[in-house]
Specification:
7 strands, 47 helices, about 5% strand, about 900 residues, DNA-binding, mainly alpha, AAA family ATPase, TPR-like_helical_dom_sf, elongated, transcription regulation
């Protein structure tokens, strides 16, 4: 027993193999028996990589007896006596042994009993005086000749000083081999089983890491060791968790390759098909029977590679897939797709495999991709739907089907990239002209055509649909939408907004028809409860990415109906809700749409900074090229907001942005003309301003949408006449005409009209008109117009030498204008300029605290900047763009009279938003 005294050191060499004391003790007992002349056989069995090889080698070297070892390999099974040669070679056997081996190996019919007997006697003679430990690793891969010799030896080992140690990977198949049958017959044979490790606490410093390692490895020693290597060699995780690195992945794949040949194909099939795969489906993909699949799964479960038939971590599954070549992986994905399709699986399960296989060459795949795309749209997975449709288009060879898929691609891509959808129209228009598209498909293309300024093509499409379709909700919605948004293309007799008075929408009408009907009614008859109710019904069911023809535009049209109806509070609530949903789902186009409407709401409430931010966000989310003819809306809001804030250079730069000519024949162009007119008015180009306002009036009158809720062109034209001072009578006529059209009901436009009407009246009549205007504008929440009405009221009191009252009103006007961030109006209302002649202003000329001069938005930005956040970090926290942050800080520096962030006052910390 020399050498066994260093038992502790020897077991330490097992490099992490713990809990092996029982097995070691069993081997020691068998060795003792062998040294006394009673030969023994130890069969070391256990799952793959459970430490059999290491235990075999470590014990053999520590035994103190002679030790020879042989390693079996599946690649050497055809080499006769390959294993036996490995054993005899280091023993310095006589030459006749080598000759005997060569002769037996050359035998075409295999070794004879005489040859096996002679080889067995040769080994026993060599061990007669010198005890021997023979270790044979992976005996299940031994060549048949060597295996016959081993069986012969086992039957005669009882009187020899030999300990024969055989290691074998446990599997259901191994239990039925001739070797196992023979071993069970002999009492001097012992089965030494190695199970996965039960505890890893001694190997990992952190108990949490030990628990995670056990969950990842199932106690498999090789996997445990690989995880230890990953902790040592890889960069630690930020959260301090267990690192799963390349060592773990390599070790897991190695375990599969070292298992029986039937295990690896099943593991690959499992990695491809997923956790819910049945034994039958795995067998078909791995090209084997269900019994073999069950056996392979048992082997992998026992080895700790799987847990209840599935990979213990996504990294394990990924390692198995990465072990496949690109071509093999694609073929397996295609095989899985064919398997699922044959089994009648839904398209949503089949299509992902076809995508991963990058295969779309068979006609049967077309309906699979199309159906899967429909499901993806309903789940608001637009990019996935586009991918499926592109593959369907590639696979489809039938002309009409291919054209229909191309049309659907245009509609779907319009929701994520309108300009890209416009580029696809070049392939769809020829199909439309060739009669390869249905009326429904043709109708659905009109909107993207007009959006991308393809007016002639859209006209051609509508002419065809009108000729072939008598009536349908889709055509009705399209006609009304044209009347509201592109009136020059509408069928005047039946689809102008005037024609909607007798039309109603049923409860079963689609969201687009409901939305466009509500908008048409508002454009025709102004603010009314029924239209607002219809618009809210649409929004209650709206999703940021509707799967219908129109995508998010039905919600956008419903929001615009509320805006034009002066239901600004309701519109703001719905905008914010839809914006949050679109932001959560990362739908850039929907966010751009809703940001644009939210900007319009803020502009009409006089919240200029918020309006500017939302409009800028809309253009950041979808650049000008993507807005097409609708560019007039966000661009008009930017121009208008910048003008009212006194940022005339910014407004002029926005006007330099090229716009499509077709925009001026759409409703979107009205917003642009109106904003440009106000920029001209603020920069003393009165005739240019008047021309834009009157152009709005001419277009709106001819289109039948002459409602001030869209743009109040009459009051703006009247203001241009008044500021020019050339035609006060025409100004008064326009104002009175506007008031007459509005009726007795209060509205924002009525408040503005009363303010302007006061300017045409005698001084003693002005205060009452202006007070009425102030009351209305306070009720409707238009802070900017309220500040202007208060400013005019202050001037009216001054004209009547009511200085104290004038000063009080001017101070209030200044505060309201400051909240709006209307810098130019604030400058006009500064107390130093607002004092009445000959009378000192009250002591309170300016707010004592300069921070009070900041708007709420500026205070939030300044507070974050003061504590060290970068512009990009602030933009991320407040959901606005970095360029908007820069503009805020520029105004903050000016108002607080500082130059750098470090100079911002510490008092700003109290204004930090809760998210900071």
């Amino acid at each position: 027993m020399t050498g066994m005294s260093d038992n502790g050191m020897t077991k330490a060499r097992l490099a992490g193999l713990i809990e092996r004391d029982d097995q070691w003790a069993t081997l020691e007992t068998l060795l003792t028996d062998s040294l006394s002349g009673s030969g023994r056989v130890a069969l070391l069995t256990g799952p793959v990589a459970s430490g059999k090889t290491e235990l075999l080698h470590a014990f053999g070297e520590a035994s103190g007896a002679g030790f020879v070892k042989a390693t079996c390999s599946a690649f050497e099974r055809d080499l006769p006596f390959g294993v036996a040669s490995q054993i005899f070679h280091p023993l310095d056997a006589p030459d006749e042994v080598g000759e005997l081996l060569d002769a037996a190996a050359r035998s075409a019919e295999g070794p004879t009993a005489r040859q096996l007997h002679a080889l067995c006697l040769a080994l026993l003679d060599l061990t007669a005086e010198t005890p021997l430990v023979i270790g044979i690793d992976d005996v299940q891969h031994a060549d048949s000749s060597s295996l016959h010799w081993l069986l012969y030896l086992i039957r005669r080992i009882g009187q020899a000083k030999v300990l024969l140690m055989l290691s074998e990977t446990a599997s259901p198949r191994a239990a039925h081999t001739a070797l196992h049958t023979e071993l069970l017959r002999h009492p001097h044979c012992r089965d030494v089983q190695l199970a996965p490790l039960g505890s890893l606490g001694e190997l990992f410093e952190a108990s949490a890491h030990a628990a995670d390692a056990m969950a990842l490895s199932g106690g498999n020693p090789l996997l445990v060791r690989s995880l230890l290597d990953d902790q040592r060699l890889c960069k630690p995780r930020d959260d301090g968790g267990l690192v799963i690195g390349p060592s773990y992945r390599r070790a897991l794949v190695s375990c599969l390759h070292r298992s029986d040949h039937h295990v690896l194909p099943v593991a690959r099939a499992l990695a491809v098909t997923g956790e819910q795969a049945t034994h039958e489906s795995l067998g078909r993909l791995a090209r084997t029977d269900t019994d073999t699949v069950a056996s392979a799964l048992d082997v992998m479960n026992e080895a700790g590679l799987l847990c209840d038939g599935w990979f213990r971590d996504p990294a394990a599954r990924g390692a198995v897939l990465d072990d496949l070549s690109t071509q093999d992986r694609k073929e397996m994905y295609l095989g899985a797709a064919l398997l699922l399709h044959d089994e009648g699986a839904p398209a949503t399960e089949v299509a992902p495999y076809l995508v991963m296989a990058d295969h779309s060459e068979n006609p049967w795949m077309v309906p699979v991709f199309v159906e899967a795309a429909e499901h993806a749209l309903r789940d608001e997975q637009i990019d996935t739907a586009l991918r499926y449709l592109e593959l369907a288009h590639r696979a489809c060879v039938e002309v009409h089907g291919r054209a229909a898929i191309a049309a659907k691609l245009v509609r779907v891509e319009w929701r994520v990239n309108p300009s890209a959808a416009g580029r696809r129209l070049g392939t769809v228009v020829p199909a439309m002209r060739a009669g390869q598209l249905s009326d429904r498909d043709v109708t659905s293309l009109v909107q993207p055509m007009l959006w991308n300024c393809q007016v002639d093509e859209a006209t051609e499409a509508m002419d065809r649909v009108r000729r072939t379709t008598t009536s349908s909700n889709g055509l009705r919605a399209m006609e009304l939408w044209l009347a509201c948004s592109h009136p020059t293309l509408a069928r005047r007799a039946t689809s102008t907004p005037e024609a909607v008075k007798t039309r109603t929408v049923s409860l079963t009408s689609g969201p687009m028809l409901k939305a466009v009907t509500a908008l048409a009614n508002v454009l025709t008859y102004g603010n009314n409860d029924a239209s607002a109710t219809d618009a809210e019904h649409v929004l209650q069911a709206a999703r940021p990415s509707d799967s219908g023809w129109w995508g998010p535009e039905s919600a956008m049209l419903a929001l615009q109906a509320l805006v034009y109806a002066d239901r600004l509070d309701v519109a703001a609530q719905w905008c914010d809700k839809l914006l949050d949903e679109a932001r959560t789902k990362n739908l850039a186009v929907a966010r751009a749409f809703f940001s644009c409407v939210r900007a319009e709401v803020s502009l009409r409430r006089g919240d200029l900074t918020t309006a500017f931010e939302h409009a800028q966000n809309a253009l950041d989310l979808m650049p000008a090229g993507g807005w097409g003819v609708a560019l007039g809306m966000p661009l008009g809001i930017l121009i208008n907001a910048a003008t009212k804030m006194g940022r005339h250079e910014d407004a002029a730069s926005f006007l330099e942005q090229p716009v499509p000519e077709a925009m001026f024949q759409s409703r979107y162009g009205l917003h642009y003309l109106y904003a440009r007119g106000h920029h001209y008015l603020a920069t003393s180009r009165h005739y240019a301003a008047l021309a834009d306002f009157l152009s709005c009036g001419e277009l709106m009158t001819s289109w039948g949408v002459d409602q001030p809720g869209v743009v109040p062109w009459r009051t703006s034209a009247a203001e241009a006449w008044l500021l020019h001072g050339a035609n006060r009578d025409e100004a008064k006529r326009l104002i009175n005409e506007q008031l007459a059209r509005l009726g007795p009901d209060a509205s924002r436009t009525r408040g503005v009209a009363l303010r302007l009407l006061a300017a045409t009246n005698q001084p003693h009549n002005r205060p009452q008109l202006l007070q009425d205007a102030v009351v209305i504008l306070e009720e409707y929440g238009d802070q900017y117009e309220l500040a202007r009405a208060l400013a005019d009221l202050s001037k009216a009191h001054q004209a009547l030498r009511e200085h104290r009252r004038a000063w009080t009103v001017a101070r209030r006007a200044w505060h309201v204008a400051n909240v709006c961030d209307a810098a130019e109006l604030c400058e006009e209302l500064l107390p130093s300029r607002g004092k009445a002649d000959g009378e000192d202003a009250p002591a309170e000329e300016k707010p004592a605290d300069p921070i009070a001069t900041l708007t709420d938005a500026e205070r939030r930005v300044a507070a974050l900047a003061a504590v060290g956040y970068t512009n990009r970090e602030i933009a991320s926290k407040l959901y606005i763009t970095p360029s908007t942050i820069e503009q805020h800080l520029t105004r903050v520096y000016r108002k607080l009279n500082v130059k750098y962030r470090k100079d911002l006052p510490a008092d700003l910390h109290s204004y930090l938003p809760s998210t900071a």
